[in-house]
Amino acid sequence: MTRFSALSLFTKAFGGHQNWPEQWPDAAPKPAYDAIIVGGGGHGLGAAYYLAKKYGITNVAVLEKGWIGGGNTGRNTTIIRSNYLYDESAHLYDHAVKLWDGLSQELNYNIMYSKRGVMMLAHNVHDVQSLQRHINANRLNGVDNEWLTPEQAKAYCPPLNISPDARHPVLGAALQRRGGTARHDSVAWGYARAAAALGVDIIQNCAVTGIRRGANGAIEGVETTRGYIASKRVGVSAAGNTSVIMHMAGLDFPLESYPLQALVSEPIKPTFPCVVMSNTVHAYMSQSDKGELVIGAGTDQYVSYSQRGALHIVEHTLAAICEIFPIYRRMRMLRTWGGIVDVTPDRSPILGKTPVKGLYVNCGWGTGGFKATPGAGDLLAYTMAKDEPHKINAPFNLDRFRNGRLIDEAAAAAVAH
Amino acid sequence: MILIHCPYCDEKRPEIEFANAGQAHIARPFDPSGQSDADWEAYLFIRANPRGRHHERWRHVHGCGRFFNAVRDTVTDKFETTYKAGEPRR
Ligand SMILES: Cc1cc2nc3c(=O)[nH]c(=O)nc-3n(C[C@H](O)[C@H](O)[C@H](O)COP(=O)(O)OP(=O)(O)OC[C@H]3O[C@@H](n4cnc5c(N)ncnc54)[C@H](O)[C@@H]3O)c2cc1C
Ligand SMILES: [Zn+2]
Hints:
heterodimer; A: alpha/beta; six-stranded mixed sheet; globular; B: mainly beta; Folate-binding fold; four-stranded antiparallel sheet; 1 helix; binds flavin-adenine dinucleotide; binds zinc ion
């Protein structure tokens, strides 16, 4: 692996950026591995990296049915924050936010983590009460979050319309200054490159089609479109396709998969300094370093694997964006797309062991798991290496749907991203 | 936006007239106190979530207001059929 440095970039630039070597090899599957990760998104690639880096398990394969980062990792609006209500969630998401810091250095790959602040708008009395409750709960957990008046919100984000007769009046906002964005593709590529350098095989165009269990029920390996691969330890990190893969192991899961959409505008000069989210009208926005306004819309109401979403969902979001930020009314949108998100009944993820020995799962991140990428990877690796969950992910087990210990961020936030 | 056939109105109408009401044919237990935790988990939380043929409920909220069932392919989003509540699973 070539190390990136100012000098290497300069030298290559001087040579017209010719002859950059391949950043990691396109591996073919071996007959057996010590551990297999199903799904080459940021979470799965991160798990492979931490398995090799922290736990010395380097004979690992990441199996990706398409191309790495081609799932939700490459389709999301990259909002990073940790201001969740419940203690368990605050610890889980803040663990990830702490890892984002320094990740570029650790991976020697610029993932462009930008702490530009995430501001959540309050449009009505209920929003005010709920955001203030979040702020208090967050602070008790050592997670930064502060209340802004409408004027302070406008000062932080000048395009915001705070006129009292606006369609969606701004009564205040909650600001998490450590929140922000990162470059999604770089996260996948950075982890893949760093994992491959430690010996992990990154295998693309390799869909898992079956799971083989032995006479005692334990995992023996996976059937794939590129043949059978043996492993006694399999971690599934397949986002919207988790139910399908769990069925292969004979497990039914508390998940439903929905299309979630995003869109970007034509690129313009920097005008939008932070991330703004409005949960009530369901619109959120930031501006990418390329200059595009990156806009997140809602999910469709029905279960689907189509990786598209309906037009009226996008229209609803854009109507709200035009009201909240009138200066963008004449912007043109360049692209829209959808990803399939795996939603749990309590809108919290499932990260831990399964009833099948040797089978581990990381799923249910739904509409908001990009922010958790380094944390989820780290905790899945821990759980697979030790065959028991870390105390941070222990509450996010599958049993909670049986014993009732839900972590109900759904009820707390109504929307989560 | 998909077009949905309401079996009561016998008309194909745009999706915005309808509310999806989740997986179909999940029967509420007759004897709640006789259910185990695992039964409750299955009833409340476990969902088929198939990639392909899916049975689901819809309600024609901005029309006749009635619930009905549908079979839809979750990859193409195409409806195979819709039928009235109470009719056998197709
Ligand atoms: C439009 C949109 C906006 C979003 N915005 C945000 C946001 O602003 N902030 C935030 O925190 N989160 C956001 N999310 C959610 C976030 O993208 C996901 O929670 C997160 O990226 C999940 O990462 P992952 O690595 O688990 O999944 P993915 O990146 O989806 O990776 C799973 C991989 O598994 C592969 N796979 C599936 N089936 C198989 C199989 N049988 N065999 C082999 N491989 C298989 C897939 O091809 C895929 O590459 C958004 C999602 C979408 C769709
Ligand atoms: Zn009707």
